[in-house]
Each structure stands twice: as C-alpha cells, then as structure tokens.
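Let us work through a complete example step by step.
Step 1: write down the sequence.
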Amino acid sequence: MKRPQLGLQPDQVLLVEHDPLWKKEYEQISSELLQQLPSFTADRIQHIGSTAITGLQAKPIIDIALGVEKQESQWSVYDQPLRAVGFYRLRVQRQQEVVFARFADAEFRVKTHFIHMIPYGSEHWLDMLFFRDYMNVHEEARQQYAQLKMDFTTRQQHGIAEYTEYKEQFIQHIFSLRKG
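Step 2: predict the structure and record it as tokens.
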C-alpha cells in the first residue's frame, strides 16, 4: 500500500492539500489497534480532525479518537498495547483525554499520528465526531474553516498552541450546533 507523506516537526504548523490516502492510512492503523486491543470494537476507533474531512487542507498528521471506558487514572493499562503499534504517551495535559503519538524518526521529533484517548460517548467524544461529520456535509462551513486555517498559516508556520487557539471559537460554534 502506498502511504501518504505524514509528519510535522515540533511546533510546526503546515497545511497540505487533502490526500485520499489519509483514509487508507487511518484504516491501516485502525486495523492494527483492533489487533492490539481485542476488547475494542470498530465504533470505538474513529478518524477525526482535518484529515478526516474530505477536500480540506490539513496538517499532515492522522488524528484518531479511541473511545475508552476506563477513568483517567486507569488509562495507563493502554500504554503497552499502544507502544506495540508504535504509539507513545505524550505529556499533554487535557481534562479526560490522554494523547499518544507515533513518530517518523528515532529522535521522537516528527509526529505522524495522534491518538486522542477519550471516554466513549462523552460530550468530548460526541463533539469530535459531530465536527467531522458536520464539516463533511456542509460545504460553506468547510470553506470557512479552510479560510480560517489558511489565514493563520499565511502569517506564521510555527506555534501549534496559537494555531489551535486561533481556530477555537469556530470549532466551539460547530460544537454548539450539536447541542441545539
């Protein structure tokens, strides 16, 4: 299988054209995860983020939501199975979310994939899936989001925290549409 070009340096913000191979890459990783986590079903492993939105420019990193039942303090039981498929836990501090990354290099600098371990069925889980699905169906919103992302990247190519914050109001607006 031909694989997409993936990976970003630390703190790099770079958008590339949508690559149809992103979906195939997600499917390959999902298959590997299901083999390592036999208690999981396919509905608990979801392709999220911009690479899951058809036609949208994105950072070349595959984001995956992994829906878990365990409480945050018990999530370490997933460290070994995820390491077996090349994912390492990051020191990212988010409420009810643990983040793992896969790297393209032995120095653990170029991230190619993220796993966002989130309680299955939680508000955060539902928001992530809603955002992906909404953006795939609503062309106008997708174009607005694309423009917002390009506005940031034309000014700067570094500052992932600033990039995330720059998009936050738009993302929260889309989340609010799910809630009525």
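Step 3: interpret the result. The first strand starts at residue 45 and ends at 48.
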